Amino acid sequence: MSLELIIGPMFAGKTSAIQTIIRRHEALGIKCVAYKPIIDNRFGEDSFIYNHDSVKVAAKSVNNLTANRLTQEYNSANLVIIEEGQFFLDLYDFVASAVEEDGKHVVVAGLDGDRFRKPFGQILSLIPIADKVTKLTAFCKRCAKDGNIIPALFTYGSIQSIRSVQIGGAEIYEPVCRVHYIASISQQPPSQSS
What DSSP line would sit under 95-140, residue for residue? Predict the structure, then answer.
């Protein structure tokens, strides 16, 4: 039983990391089950986890996690993967139960902060009970235009909304370094609620 968190901004490779974990375990014959939030339909309404290169692995789209503890699929799995963990309102309770009561190995991937650099969902509350925490970074998209490879710690959203949850991809979000995040926020007009 263990808990691993893979966190960071968009485009940091979190999904690719969990896809690798799934494939490695399945190659050894270890039963895995993967869950993704039904709200995340950027790549369609199907049962796959896609990375930004459109590589996919099978996953179950769910509204919440807790009800899945009663399924045969969950009970027969040794490894439980949760994609986009920040969207699940029952994340902490499910993960704590899966690891400490059901003896599962759980890997949760997701954003550690929203586009306002505030904690996103319950994912950060898992850090005190995690065995391993990996914070990935992307490359700053704006620095790269100048030929510089600078780590991007944050996700900047170009949308004019004060809502934290706005599902989207590269059309509205970009990975940025601290300098470009601060510059973007200072140039942004006041937000309108939508």
Answer: HHHHHHTT--EEEEEE-SB-TTSSB-TTGGGGGGG-SEEEE--EE-
Burial class (CB in 10 A: 0-12, 13-18, 19+), 94: buried
Q: Which amino acid is it at 65? A: L
Specify the amino acid at residue 139.
F
- The tokens of 188 are what? 């942004």
C-alpha to C-alpha distance for 149 and 145, rounded to whole angstroms: 9
pLDDT band with cut points at 50, 70 and 90 for residue 163: low
Domains annotated for the chain, with CATH where assigned, are: 2-136 (3.40.50.300), 141-187 (3.30.60)
Q: How far apart are CA 14 and CA 110, in angstroms?
A: 7
Active site residues: 84
End-to-end CA, the chain = 42
Residue 83 CA to residue 36 CA, distance in Å, equals 5
- Indicate the average pLDDT of the chain: 87
Rounded distance between C-alpha atoms, residue 38 and residue 89, angstroms: 12
pLDDT band at 52 (very low <50, low <70, confident <90, very high): low
Give the residue carrying structure tokens 């003896």: 103
